[in-house]
Amino acid sequence: MGKPWIFLFIASALEAAWTFSLRKLDLVALKNAAIENSLLSAPVGRELGYLLTYLGLGAANIFFLSLSMKSIPMTIAIATWTSVSLILIKICDIFILKNATNIYEFFFLALIIVGIVGLKYSAPA
């Protein structure tokens, strides 16, 4: 597997992490913490940390995606990036967040995996 594909899978993992960072990000809580506390207080630092994590993951995600798209056609890169991110999010949803799932979801995730493999082997990169 070439570097562009590795960059694409790194971007997908960062996209999944970025998505989960949205669960913690709360700009209203940041504003309220800044109003109620000193800017150097723990509540402000915690909320600011969530914001910086969100921004950092988003920037790193796009950086690695752009590296992969230098060699992989854009349509294949975006389709793969989105699909792998979705699969990683669903895996975390099941195993970390303990959300219920059913056999149909596994079946359709398997179809997505087949599509990713097909795209990978049909791409010129």
Automatic annotation (TrEMBL):
Pfam families registered for this protein in UniProt: Multi_Drug_Res (PF00893)
Family annotation (SUPFAM superfamilies): Multidrug resistance efflux transporter EmrE
Keyword Protease among record annotations: no
Entry's localization field: Cell membrane
Membrane-spanning residues: 48-67, 74-97, 103-123
Principal cellular location given in the protein's record: membrane
Keyword Manganese: no
Record membrane topology: Multi-pass membrane protein
Keyword annotations from UniProtKB, A to Z: Cell membrane, Membrane, Transmembrane, Transmembrane helix, Transport
Entry similarity comment: Belongs to the drug/metabolite transporter (DMT) superfamily. Small multidrug resistance (SMR) (TC 2.A.7.1) family. Gdx/SugE subfamily.
Protein name: Guanidinium exporter
Organism lineage: Bacteria, Pseudomonadati, Bacteroidota, Cytophagia, Cytophagales
